[in-house]
Design a protein that fits this description.
Layout lengths: L6 H18 L3 E7 L3 H5 L1 H5 L1 H25 L5 E7 L2 H9 L5 E6 L9 H9 L4 E6 L1
Parallel strand pairs: 1-2, 3-4
Helix pairs in contact: 1-4, 5-6
Length: about 140
């Protein structure tokens, strides 16, 4: 499952994923891909500094941990495996799908359109696993 950063979207995806994992009695892998801020992209040497990369990555880890907290309390029997990865979310999700029973991805809804977004679109085309697209606002 890919965990979006936006609170409302993340809650919809997390609720579906935790409920699905609890129903199936399987562990849940909560994954988040991240990109460094644009200023870091312009100065690759900054990303190479261990304390800088560690700081950016640990901030993502802390945010994911905090976002999962309420759901862990609601579903205490679900084992959660956290996964943080530097890089594009599409590549991460397709890679993780190879070992998943179900891939849960948020779908940003736009009124009057069937647009699913580039991440959902790519996952639908390339992931070889059942996919749950969870509509969000």
């Amino acid at each position: 499952m890919g965990v979006p950063e936006d609170g409302e979207e993340a809650d919809a995806v997390l609720e579906f994923a935790f409920r699905a994992a609890a129903t199936r009695g399987v562990p849940l892998r909560a994954a988040r891909a991240w990109q460094p801020p644009p200023i870091v992209n312009r100065h690759p040497a900054v990303l190479a500094l261990p304390e800088t990369r560690g700081g950016l990555e640990s901030a993502q880890q802390s945010d994911l941990y905090a976002r999962l907290g309420p759901w862990r309390r609601t579903y205490p029997d679900v084992t959660v495996i956290e996964h943080i990865e530097l890089g594009p979310s599409v590549e991460m999700l397709i890679s993780l799908a190879a070992s998943a029973q179900l891939l849960v991805v948020g779908r940003r809804s736009r009124l009057g359109t069937r647009y699913v977004g580039h991440v959902a679109h790519a996952v639908l085309h390339f992931a070889d696993v059942p996919i749950a697209l969870v509509p969000t606002r």
